[in-house]
Amino acid sequence: MKRYIVFLPVFVWAIFFAGAEVKVENASIHRSGDSIRVSFKILVPSGTIASDYVQRLIPVIENGVDSLALDEIEIIGKRKQKLRRREAVLSGKTYEVPFYQTVDGGELQYDCVLPY
């Protein structure tokens, strides 16, 4: 049985980039049948990113030989989120919100199921 390790180096980079501490809690990987479930909770303290910015994080699963990038996580500043909504309303375009998105100062439960 191969051991799988979740490497979240992007979170470490985000901590130094932003100057605040993004916390990852309850990280787990479970194999059931022909799939792998990855789950963790992200806590984003207020002030992690500037209100006009968006921070994108990509978790990666690696087994020493291969690696697989999981779905992107987006942390968005409060002002940037308001600007996106306003732009969508005024232009008539719809802005597609990423599945995993949280606002600065929020939290996010990340759950992903992958084929084994």
3D architecture notes:
By secondary structure, this protein is of the alpha+beta class. The protein has one domain (5-115). It is 21% helix and 42% strand. It is built from two helices and nine strands; from the N terminus they run βαββββββαββ. It has helices spanning 9-18, 78-91, and strands at 5-7, 23-32, 35-43, 54-57, 60-62, 67-69, 73-76, 100-103, 107-115. It has a three-stranded antiparallel sheet with strand order 1-5-6, with no helix packed on it. A hairpin with a 4-residue loop joins strand 5 (60-62) and strand 6. The chain is globular, with a radius of gyration of 16 Å. The termini are close together. Mean pLDDT is 78; it is low at 1-16.
Short overview:
This protein has 2 helices and 9 strands; from the N terminus they run βαββββββαββ. The protein is α+β, with helices and mostly antiparallel strands and 116 residues long.
Features:
116 residues, alpha+beta, 3-stranded antiparallel beta sheet, 9 strands, 42% strand, 2 helices
Structural class based on helices, strands and sheet pairing: alpha+beta
What is the rounded Rg?
16 Å
Give me the side-by-side strand order of the main sheet: 1-5-6
Q: Ends: how far apart?
A: 11 Å
Q: For the residues shown, what is the average pLDDT?
A: 78
Structural domain tally: 1
Number of strand elements: 9
List SSEs in N-to-C order.
EHEEEEEEHEE
Topology of this structure?
Blueprint: E1 5-7, H1 9-18, E2 23-32, E3 35-43, E4 54-57, E5 60-62, E6 67-69, E7 73-76, H2 78-91, E8 100-103, E9 107-115
Parallel strand pairs: 7-8
Antiparallel strand pairs: 1-5, 2-3, 3-9, 4-7, 5-6
